[in-house]
Amino acid sequence: MSADPLAQADAQAPASVPAQAHAPAPRPEPEFHWFLPTGGDGRDPGGVTAVQGRTRAATRRPADIGYLGQVARAAEQAGFGALLAPVGLGCVDPWILCSALTQHTSRIGFLVAFRAGLASPTLVAQQADAFRRFADGRLRLNVVTGGDAAEQRAYGDHLPHDERYTRTGHLMAVLRDLLEGKEAAGDGGALRLEGARLVDPAVEHPVPLYFGGASPAAEQVAARQADVQLLWGEPPAAVGQRIERVRALAAEQGRTVRFGLRLHVITRDTAQQAWAEADRILDTLDPAAVRASQERFAAMESVGQARQTALHGGGTDRGSLEVSPNLWAGIGLVREGAGTALVGSHDEVAERLAEYRALGIDEFVLSGYPHLEEALRVGEEVVPRVRDLTAQPDRMARPVLRTWS
């Protein structure tokens, strides 16, 4: 890990200058968001796309407006800042869902995922502008390129992996210009825009662009276009390396990027209770479903998915699945995408989140099964502990990077 540039600057300051004049500006508090289970919910993890399929235990609670409205209100009551609505064949449409949920909530924001390249950036900008206007600015956008070639083909998209990211970068640049009230034009591959502009856009409500992707092509797009680069949960050393790499790429563009971490959480009053729940989840997984899921994940083009799978290597015992202190990869045996959970007592989980915060994570997108009850548990028991820890300057000075074998 490289030295803290702010600390280096302080060390090099002239002795005659008061120390407080060179003190770094206080870092904003971390943000915490929650996940909307738009493919159904239950006590057990399940797939997030129709290609993968799900067990009945993972979808006992249907993804209807009644239940998802309860999840949204619970997350709002628990103090979360926004709700992530995923996009994919197995999810209800996030634009329509989140528009409906604005009528069931009053404060919480919406991190709406959309699949880049499936619609004109001008049309996406119109949708986003209408949403932010009618929802008092409660909008953030999660730009998803897509790493599963089979699912992309189902949408009619046959571009190769790196070309999809080139297209995504163009879309993000156009989208940003339009949402800021500028005129956009240019050739983005299949689309050639001429004189694109929004009519009286609601520019008083900025829309941050969130973006995910672990490949070199994705990191170049993040450095040039993302406001927040989203990472999936990995051991702290790996997360720190990714942050440093994207920061350096962004600096070459004269930009800074914030970082978010997507994690599941299994938290209880005691560590024993939390690990008992993790063991229960593991015991309910059908070995045939695990094999089928791992075979499908291996065929995907997503570098991030490959990194998640490599954490456990298909192992199904506690020793294989606890890949770092309190970081459990069991959910990734069957669930596509974010497949790790922090498992432990409320204090332990908060400490691990504070360590990620010290590495440079600015926002956390959390979830737990079932999402209704766990929104309240995590919001009431874990988030306040993390805020207390990260408010201590000495605690934030350096991350604790534990070794793990």
TrEMBL record:
Ranges annotated as biased composition (Low complexity): 1-24
Source domain of life is Bacteria
Which InterPro entries does the protein's record reference? Luciferase-like_dom, Luciferase-like_sf, SsuD_RutA_monooxygenase
Domain Luciferase-like per the UniProt entry, residue ranges: 32-363
Keywords of this protein's UniProt record, alphabetized?
Flavoprotein, FMN, Monooxygenase, Oxidoreductase
Q: Where is this region: Disordered?
A: 1-31
The protein depicted here goes by the name LLM class flavin-dependent oxidoreductase
Tell me which species this is from. Answer: Catenulispora yoronensis
Lineage of the species this protein comes from = Bacteria, Bacillati, Actinomycetota, Actinomycetes, Catenulisporales
